[in-house]
Amino acid sequence: MTAATRSALEIAVAALAAAVAAGLALERAGAWQPGRAAVVALVVIAAVLAVASTAVRAVGGALTRRRDRRRDLHEDVLSAALWAVVDGTAAAPPAPGAPAAPGAPAAPGARPLDVRDLALAVYLLRRGPLRAPRLERVHRVRARRRPVASGVRWAPGKGVVGACVATGEVVARDVTALDAAGERQGLSEQELRAVRGKYAVVVAVPLLDDTGATSRVTGCLALDGPAGTLPQLTTPAVLAVLEATARTLQRLGDTTAAAVSAAPAAVSAAAPRALPAAERERGAQLLRAALERQGSPPERVAAAAGRLAP
Fold first, then answer.
1. Where are the domains of the chain?
2. Is pLDDT larger for residue 110 or for residue 181?
3. What pTM was computed for the model?
4. 288-205-261-162 Cα dihedral, nearest 10 degrees
5. Are the beta carbons of 122 and 79 closer than 8 angstroms?
6. Over the stretch 244-273, which tens digit does the pLDDT of each residue have?
7. What CA dihedral angle connects 139, 143, 146 and 148, to 10 degrees?
8. Spatial CA neighbour of 223 closest among 72, 105, 122
């Protein structure tokens, strides 16, 4: 139940209760002479509305608390993941003119990134009965120096996050280079203007529901950083942290219920799991360590860390 739905129900119940109360008041004042059956019906309706009003408030309060807990867990996991990315980053940009492939090992002795230059966001795949699939951003953690959101309505196939969800694979791109090359990435001219200058390097990792016979993409986790950091943000250590974070978010139960009903794309169960087991374990360890040291309440740390097993 959304806040808008709850408000609409509360208004409807209040309006009906007011109408019933007015009818009973008119009957007592002698201004209206309904039959005995009508009076009994009004009394019964008044009692039902009182119960309904209490139930709506109780359900609304429970959903609000659940939403707050989910927001706090997202905040904890994403904040820890940013620090874990920094911990796992030991790469410097390669020598001028030397390309670096995603997943290349870090350069020894290189300086790690500044957490204030990074941002992480979670997108869930949703589709209503009368609308096309879309990606809804449910939480974002960013430093003040990172740009605000673009306002673009992301969808499968649109931008880096859309490509990630459409393919079910990790997608890492230097979007400034794509922009310079004139690649639209599924964006309209207006959307291109909205995102221009807001993003430089984006790495997106799919959220996967592995409970069925085949994996299903339910959304993605997107890391964005400053220009020139594509080699640093695609080392095995960083990709392992992002994969562990995506796995943790999925297992928290916040993504499956919301996104499976959106008819997400089916993906081969084996395709997204390219990292070696040792790297996956390292990513989980980095995320767990960051969770434990950031000062979150122990119960929230336990809720998140308990879902880190590869």
1. 3-62, 70-305
2. 181
3. 0.70
4. 150
5. no
6. 999 888 887 644 334 333 343 333 333 445
7. 40
8. 122
